């Protein structure tokens, strides 16, 4: 029975946890993420060495290009275009397994959290942006191009006048789901309908205080999210949809969602199970460590 080390490489912090064979926390450490690439690689290696022996799993924003082995799409831009996986493995001096950070959270929730026991688990992380992961039979579904479960950059389905014109996305396309269902999306939508640029929590607070415009913006976000989920049901029909990230605190995006998803599903009768994530911040490290656990 070996220990498992899980590493969560984030834009501001790098966090490492060493778990024992029963996945109890045996060691924890964290530090600020350095600004340049070489220092990031060195910092991760040092934290892993300090954690001790065990298998090493890592989660980071972005993904490994399946053909060129270069890291891409990370908001830690210093890592993009670099052989991040190979450089980390060399610096750590042990075989590593590494996944997109949202995929690690999805794996943790599927194995040990809200999706435990289900065979197909779809996970959304709703924060500033909209990320996701898909776990099938206990394994992360990465896809032939490493692009599976990029839910945030699927198009908003069944657009109508209220959604038009489509919002420009940073990825270069228009009408991506993330531009509607996320903190950023809520801010943009409220600004578009009222002319006022407020932060997400302020819009939520105004809705709770009874402001009609804020309530309508949240209702539009909810309806759009139901369409995105129904589209997913029409493709893979998950056993459970798990919602994580800061905005999953809103009941509109969890408890109140299934009847709306049902309405948009092809049959109009789909019974969709939607649950809030069971783990918080630690799920990235747990999921990374679980990359070495047999499915
Ligand atoms: Zn996009």
Question: Topology of this structure?
Answer:
Blueprint: E1 4-9, E2 13-19, E3 25-32, H1 37-51, E4 55-60, E5 63-64, E6 71-72, H2 84-92, E7 96-100, H3 101-112, E8 120-126, E9 130-136, E10 139-140, H4 183-194, H5 200-208, H6 212-235, E11 240-244, H7 258-264, E12 274-276, H8 283-290
Parallel strand pairs: 1-4, 4-7, 8-11, 11-12
Antiparallel strand pairs: 1-2, 2-3, 5-6, 8-9, 9-10
Bound molecules: zinc ion (ZN).
Zinc ion (ZN) is lined by residues 153, 169, 171, 173, 176, 178.
Tell me what the structure shows.
It contains 8 helices and 12 strands. The protein has 295 residues and is of the alpha/beta class. The chain has 2 domains: 4-104 and 281-290, Nucleotidyltransferase, domain 5 (2-Layer Sandwich); 117-276, Nucleotidyltransferase, domain 5, CATH 3.30.420.40. Helix 3 (101-112) crosses helix 8 (283-290) and helix 4 crosses helix 6 (212-235). It starts with a strand and ends in a 5-residue tail after the last helix. Bound molecules: zinc ion.
Strand content: 15-25%
Q: What is the class of the largest domain in the CATH system?
A: Alpha Beta
Give the helix tally: 8
Mean pLDDT reading: 95
Under the CATH scheme, the architecture of the largest domain is 2-Layer Sandwich
Short description:
The protein has 295 residues and is α/β, with parallel strands linked by helices. It is 33% helix and 20% strand. The chain has a five-stranded mixed β-sheet with strand order 3-2-1-4-7.
């Amino acid at each position: 029975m070996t220990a498992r080390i899980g590493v969560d490489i984030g834009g501001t912090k790098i966090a490492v946890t060493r778990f024992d064979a029963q996945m109890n926390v045996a060691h924890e450490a964290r530090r600020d993420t350095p600004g340049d690439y070489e220092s990031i690689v060195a910092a991760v290696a040092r934290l892993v060495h300090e954690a001790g022996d065990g298998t090493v799993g890592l989660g980071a924003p972005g993904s490994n290009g399946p053909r060129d082995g270069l890291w891409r799409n990370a908001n830690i831009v210093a890592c993009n275009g670099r052989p991040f996986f190979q450089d980390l493995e060399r610096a750590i001096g042990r075989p590593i397994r590494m996944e997109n950070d949202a995929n690690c959270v999805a794996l943790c929730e599927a194995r040990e959290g809200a999706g435990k026991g289900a065979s197909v688990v779809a996970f959304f992380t709703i924060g500033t942006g909209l990320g996701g992961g898909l776990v099938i039979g206990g394994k992360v579904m990465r896809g032939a191009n490493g692009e599976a479960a990029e839910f945030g950059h699927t198009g908003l389905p069944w657009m109508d006048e209220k959604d038009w014109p489509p919002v420009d996305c940073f990825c270069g396309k228009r009408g991506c789901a993330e531009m509607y269902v996320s903190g950023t999306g809520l801010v943009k939508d409220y600004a578009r309908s009222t002319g006022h640029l407020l932060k997400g929590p302020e819009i939520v607070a105004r809705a709770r205080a009874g402001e009609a415009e804020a309530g309508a913006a949240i209702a539009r976000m909810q309806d759009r999210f139901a369409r995105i989920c129904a589209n997913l049901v029409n493709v893979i029909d998950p056993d459970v949809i798990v919602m994580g990230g800061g905005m999953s605190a809103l009941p509109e995006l969890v408890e109140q969602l299934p009847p709306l998803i049902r309405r948009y599903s092809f049959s109009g009768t789909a019974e969709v199970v939607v649950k809030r994530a069971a783990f918080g911040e630690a799920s990235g490290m747990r999921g990374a460590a679980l990359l070495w656990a047999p499915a």
